[in-house]
Amino acid sequence: MKFLALLTTALASCFMAHAALAQNADNHEAITAEDVSGVIKKEFSPYAGRNYPTRPLFGDTHLHTAISVDAGTLNRLGQEDALRFARGEEVLSTGGLRAKLARPLDFVVVADHAEMYGLMPQLLAGDPEVLATEKGREWYGKLTSGDFNTIFATAMQIVGSLSGDEPPIKSERAVRNAWQAYTALADRYNDPGVFTAMLGFEWTAIGGYNLHRNVLFRGDASNANQTLPFSQFDSKNPEDLWSYMEEFENRTGGEVLAIPHNGNLSNGRMFTVESFDGKPLTKELAAKRIQYEPLIEVTQIKGDGESHPSLSPNDEFAGYEIWDRANLNGTEVKTPGMLQFEYAREALKTGLKLEASIGVNPYKFGMVGSTDAHTSLSAVEEDNFFGKHSGVEPEPKRWEHVTIAAPDPKFNVYGWQQAASGLAVVWAKENTREAIFDAMKRKETYATTGTRMVVRFFGGYEFMPEDAETRLPAAAGYQKGVPMGGDLPGAPAGKAPSFLVAAMKDPMSGNLDRIQIIKGWRDAKGETQEKVYDVAWSDGRQPGADGKLPPVGNTVDVARATWKNTIGDPELVTVWTDPDFDPKQAAFYYAKVIEIPTPRWTAYEALRFQVKMSEDVPMTTQERAYTSPIWYTPKGE
């Protein structure tokens, strides 16, 4: 009888616990043991009741397949191949090489060019409607000639033809059919909680001046099919793209955003202080830009766009994978005055000045990286790099082959100049289209150059050194501050902002060298300034008399394409308070996390193919991550 009484009591306790759980399930209230027994006063599990993003999701928002008219001249892999590869399956490349990622991506956006969307596969299949046109017959003959030089020259010619006012071959039926086939395919591969296939396309404006944007949809095919991709043949003006996006949202109830890329190749046009037609930027246009462009793609195969040595001469890490000789197609040489309107850090500073003059900051953007691969393969691991397009797949001489041909050969881009970069990382509650899109809108994102390091960055006024000692820095971060992409509230009297930043190495890459916080601000004269602070570093180094931190060292064995993690640290975390804070000055802060030197893709290639590359080819790299900024605005502004 005593046993039966105990069992009855136990069952009653379980029932009460389940009832309490059910009662609080909708509002996520913490269930304490006190609710059941009245004895224990605190929660046991530190993970119960968490309602903030806990997952860094790694993806690519910028991938091209044979559907893109430029990629399709050389690439024979379609959108399904791209989706299969991104989620971890093995595929055959256009050149017949077996290809597979070391680790699957969490999400991907197949963002094929809107211009003549889907035309190339129909052309190469000999579609009668396409071959009925003069251009169709000409291109078909050259692209099926079997001669690589003819095919490559024709590919460059086709890319050049996209800068006109009308498509060389026009077929709305082909575009609609290809778009709807793509959205249905992406819906089929979208696996909520496991792998996300987001819908998108690329708007590719004014050719070599690279005002390109990737447009991403939050919804599924039923939503995206209510429009067609907006191309430069509809308009070369990004302001018209924003109007297209606004009209789509108002008409369908869906949501879209755009991500500009390669400002470094725009020859001063990406982050200007003017409208597209050269008039002063208005408050209304600035507001529309930041509404529809909350992020930029800051690093990819065609170079890194975070900073430039001439803009940031005191930043020893500002010269990473720079492409700065001309515009995209080499038709206009770059001049020093263009650079300030091309790089992310300078654009963030320009945004502070514009906010003071017109009342809105159009460059209050977060950061992501992506590949811009035209191979259908999101393969930018240094030891697994398949290149920009299918004409430069891995083979013994690709390092010296022309990747992008210019009218003047001195502006040609060669294979070794490609950067094996990058990835987009979002902090989300779950791996779904909606959660990823929402993270992008709130800018809780960061860019990496291909590494999968984990980075947290929070700003506030109450962080203490002990917050850097917990194994759950995000708990303090969300409780006491705002995450990357956020806005600091007005500074309490006598308080300077502090920042909690934590980074953990990619288990398949190098240890961490250091964490830097980059600050930009508008001074008392209205001019913008910047400063780079080393805030956490490895190996117990001490800054020199000049305040500079000594280099971490280099363990790379180039001949064997390997390195040792005997330097650097597997993780770095700290709380840093701005020692130069002025509450009257608008500012932004973002973190840059840098790995120790590791072999660049060229070192792996030299080893595999037993080739000796020229002395100007870099053989090592220091992978890195850039967080979205946190902004401070003085009270009253």
Which helices and strands appear, and what pairs or packs with what?
Layout: H1 2-24, H2 34-37, E1 55-63, H3 79-86, E2 91-92, E3 98-99, E4 107-110, H4 119-124, H5 128-131, H6 134-143, H7 148-161, H8 172-189, E5 196-203, E6 213-217, H9 221-224, H10 238-252, E7 256-260, H11 283-292, E8 295-300, E9 303-304, H12 344-358, E10 366-369, E11 402-404, E12 413-414, E13 423-428, H13 433-441, E14 445-448, E15 454-460, H14 473-480, E16 481-483, E17 487-488, E18 498-504, E19 512-522, E20 528-537, E21 571-577, E22 587-595, E23 598-599, H15 601-609, E24 620-621, E25 624-627, E26 630-632
Parallel strand pairs: 1-4, 4-5, 8-10, 17-26
Antiparallel strand pairs: 1-13, 2-3, 5-6, 6-7, 8-9, 11-12, 13-14, 14-25, 15-16, 15-18, 18-21, 19-20, 19-22, 22-25, 22-26, 23-24
Please outline what is shown here.
By secondary structure, the protein is an alpha+beta fold.
Q: Would you mind describing this structure in some detail?
A:
By secondary structure, the protein is an alpha+beta fold. Helices cover 25% and strands 20% of the residues. The chain has 15 helices and 26 strands. The strands form six sheets. Strands 1, 4, 5, 6, 7, 13, 14, 17, 19, 20, 22, 25 and 26 form a 13-stranded mixed beta sheet that branches. The chain is globular and about 75 Å long. Mean pLDDT is 92; it is low at 1-34.
